[in-house]
Amino acid sequence: MASNNEKIYNINNFQGLSQKEAEKILMADGFNELPSQKKQSWFSILVRVLSEPMLILLLVCGLIYLFMGSPRDALMLLFFVFVVIGITFYQERKTEKTLEALRDLSSPRALVIRDGQQKRIAGRKVVKNDIIILQEGDRVPADAVILSCQNLYADESLLTGESMPARKVEWDEETQNQRPGGDDLPFVYSGSLVTSGRGVARVSSTGVNTEIGKIGKSLEGIKDEDTLLKKETAKIVRTVAIIALTLCVLMVITYILIKGDVVGGLLSGLTLSMAILPEEFPVVLLIFLTLGAWRISKNRVLTRRSDAIETLGAATVLCADKTGTLTLNKMELSNLYADNSFFELNDTKPENLPENFKTLLKYGVLASQKDPFDPIEKELNKMGELYLKGFIKDDFDLIKEYPLSRELLALSHAWRLNDTELVIASKGAPEAILNLCHADDNQKEEVLERVKEMSDKGLRVLGVARATSTLEKLPDNQHDFDFEFIGLLGFIDPIRETAPGAVKEAYGAGMRVIMITGDYPGTAQFIAKKIGIKNPEECLTGEDLEKLSHLELREKIKTVNIFARVVPEQKLLIVKALKDNNEVVAMTGDGVNDAPALKSAHIGVAMGERGTDVAREASSLVLLNDDFSSIVVAVRLGRRIYNNLKRAMGYILSVHVPIAGMSILPLAFNMPMMLLPAHIAFLELIIDPACSTVFESEKEDDDIMKKPPRDVKQPMFNFKTVSASLLQGLGVLIATIILFLFVSNSGRSETEVRSFVFVSLVLANLMLIVVNLSWSKNIHQILKSPNKALYIVFAGAILCLFAVLYIPFFTDLFRLAPLGIKDFLLVILTVFVGLAWFEVLKLFRNMDN
After folding, report:
1. What pLDDT score was predicted for residue 33?
2. Of the four, 193, 256, 430, 683, which is 20 to 30 A from 388 by CA?
3. Can you say whether the dihedral through the CA atoms of 38, 44, 49, 51 is positive or negative?
């Protein structure tokens, strides 16, 4: 008889909580989660915002103005401080809401029974007394008592340090809750991992009341390592900050020596620091990656690690599972083989199905679960109800299950026929079934030839066998039965409609597509041809992988795009070979054993619908719909995000050049300061939203998926990018200097000259945004693009500019003078001349292309 931990259960026996009961408990107990980082208070945000270099400089300038007896100037700078704080608060809230939505998506899932129905929910919404269903690869969402189980083992090393999985048994309704550790306990614990088997359990504790909560495990200590881009940005900010500080000190000393004005020297130095310091870099990087993750999630792809966004655009190889990713994972029974003949079901009526094929189908059904999750077993049960009239599976009493194992890819169910007799139904890989049947070489050759014929048609093939026994002689190993081979079942997994187009787009973007499957080579090659994978004739099997050395595999994998009969552990060999060939690898996976390959790949992609929690935890991305086309969409978005981020960084670099230059220039000509702290603050109010909204929301280039992947080793701030940005800024600076000298020598007043310089920098700032939005399109094409954020920033900047020029209160405050129409035309001409060279360069580049 079956042992206690092998009792059979029927999920339909459990009703679970009602939805209302669950909501009531959730309200009382709170979410099933451990204490994580607390929500930021307004005060903590304020402290962090005020610690930013730009605001510190503004506050210091304000204090100096106050000390000088200029309260109006001090109040104006204080107003700018409040405006910047307001913008930062808005961005913080937007970022926090985005992260909150992403956290809800990434919460470990749990399968519960509520109102008698199975339902997948976020693990944080599991409540006490919920009925949870546990399967291999699941992360246990809460402490629970086992009501029923089948070969259930759990890895509790997180709690106990024991490397071996613990065997679980059904609760005897007497054993009191115990701490984790050891075999044959009827309890499972939050955070542990189901390594094999399945079970049904009732939740006993959630959140901080679980064993993992009691020993103080929390998310507070988890800290992601800075990505390459973050490190690169931080290095640039540090370098520029040192330069800014040095120039600030030199400016103050020089100003005092030349003019003898200590306070004026301090203001000049602080203004220069504000002009040079690119404090926007880290802020822009955070916003881009956060909003980028949100944007990708809208396309049913969850970003678990931000470095994946950086790497997506550099991916050169997409390794995809066939089943469920390139296909629908919706198995349809289409072909039967029995007694040396084939039968195609199509729309065959039940009465037209021959008896021998009904027998084959009957034993296939008996070798399946009563309430299955596996798509093949679901299809078998469905076909059984359709074609086997009068056959009711519930009339049989399931005595014992012999589970599928790595050693034998077949499973068997022992059913009671009467008081003394049992019938055993087995199904699995044809080789395993033939092994169970102790088939001779001739029978093996004949059957495997039929298997090849079926797999060449894209069918997934299972063998079916039967045996009889008595209760007294029920063996421990299914190999001990005297099985008789019945036939073969052929299932077709329909190709996803989006797969061929996605594969074609991937090839157009310079990426290889590799298909990995546990199916037969014929099935894999059939599907590969259907969806357009290149070189489908060449195929390596799991057996081939075992024979090849690493160097041989590296050579073979340069041309082979199909891997069949591969077990999850062998995916790691494929990833290592590709990486050693300098490929940037994206790898999909869904099982427990896929985790090493997912972690090793540059971009691990886990399945959201059928994937296990451990696979998701090891991945960088999660496909919420398990669709291969979503990976290609994510690559497109990854390229867009990276390109726009690069352009935003280039814009920041270029816009600081003329601002810094015009902060230093007056000292060289022994003239009054042209740019005051208020002017720098005004320009910053354009720069910040431009970086965080205009560039982030810019659509990708039309040819973005027609270009090869970028070199992942190439830094964002390479010589070409930095030199182009600095030359843009230098062009504007030279044009502004010429305007400054011309206006200064034409008898204009100090405030008028300052107005010319200020307006030219504001308009140049706006034009630099437009110019940098695309390094291939001209200004006219860019302005036609549907970027609403661009027009909002433009409108806001122009309105504010007119306010400070023509409203007397603001004009006096900014120490400016109104400009006439001719003056404006002169400024516009200056800005155009300063940036015309770059537009001409774009034109020649487009002609070359």
Report:
1. 78
2. 430
3. negative
- Which is nearest to 336 in space by CA: 432, 440, 427, 463? 463
Nearest to 814 by CA among 747, 755, 764, 737: 755
pLDDT in tens, 495-524: 899 999 999 999 999 999 999 988 778 888
Question: What pTM value is reported for the model?
Answer: 0.69
Q: Distance (Å, rounded) from C-alpha 560 to C-alpha 573?
A: 14
CB 338 within 8 A of CB 349: no
For residue 100, pLDDT over 70 is answered with no
pLDDT at position 50 is: 65
What pLDDT shows up at residue 253?
85
| pLDDT(849) > 60 | no
Contacts of 366 (CB under 8 A, 6+ apart): 393, 396, 413, 415, 423, 425
Percentage of residues of the chain with pLDDT beyond 90? 30
Residue 758 has pLDDT above 70, yes or no: yes
Rounded-to-integer distance, Cα 599 and Cα 620, Å: 8
348 and 360 Cβ atoms separated by less than 8 Å: no
Other CB atoms within a 10 A radius of the CB of residue 824 amount to: 14
* Token pair in block for residue 763: 């308009």
Hey, what amino acid is at 63?
L
Q: In 3D, which of 140, 126, 123, 119 has the Cα closest to residue 198?
A: 140
233: Cβ contacts below 8 Å, ≥ 6 apart: 281, 282, 285, 649
Q: 214-241 burial, b if ≥16 CB within 10 A, otherwise e?
A: eeebeeeeeeeeebebbebbeebbeebb
Per DSSP, what are the bridge partners of residue 111?
Answer: 120, 133
* Residue 40, SS3 per DSSP: coil
In 3D, which of 553, 560, 575, 684 has the Cα closest to residue 619?
Answer: 575
- Alpha helices (H) in 509-627, listed in sequence order: 521-531, 542-547, 550-556, 568-580, 595-600, 613-618
Q: How far is CA 303 from CA 120, 122, 124, 506, 646, in A?
A: 20, 17, 19, 20, 20
Kindly give the pairing relationship between strand 540-541 and strand 562-564: parallel
Contact 275, 656 (CB under 8 A): yes
From edge to edge, which strands make up the β-sheet containing 332-338?
A: 341-344, 332-338, 484-492, 459-470, 421-428, 410-416, 397-402
Q: Is 649 exposed, middle or buried (0-12, 13-18, 19+ CB in 10 A)?
A: buried
DSSP strand pairing (484-492 vs 187-188): unpaired
Q: CA-CA distance, 226 to 165, in Å (whole number)? A: 34
Which residues share a beta bridge with 135? 198
Would the pLDDT of 343 be above 80? Answer: yes
Alpha carbon distance 636, 295 (integer Å): 12
Range name among 56-60, 379-383, 578-582 with the lowest pLDDT average: 56-60
Of 498, 573, 610, 617, the closest CA to residue 319 belongs to: 573
- Sort strands 603-607 and 585-589 into parallel, antiparallel or unpaired: parallel
Question: Which residues contact residue 515 at a Cβ distance below 8 angstroms, ignoring those fewer than 6 apart?
Answer: 319, 320, 321, 322, 326, 524, 527, 528, 533, 561, 562, 563
Q: What is the DSSP pairing of strand 341-344 with strand 332-338? A: antiparallel
Structure-derived torsion over alpha carbons of residues 539, 540, 542, 544, reported in degrees to the nearest 10: 140
Beta partners for 337?
A: 342, 488
pLDDT tens digits for range 255-268 = 788 777 777 777 77
Q: Is the dihedral of CA 671, 276, 698, 704 positive or negative?
A: positive
**Tokens 């003239």 belong to which residue?**
671
Q: What are phi and psi of 837, to 5 degrees?
A: -60, -35
Give the whole-angstrom CA distance, residue 506 versus residue 706: 9
Give the type of residue at 256: I
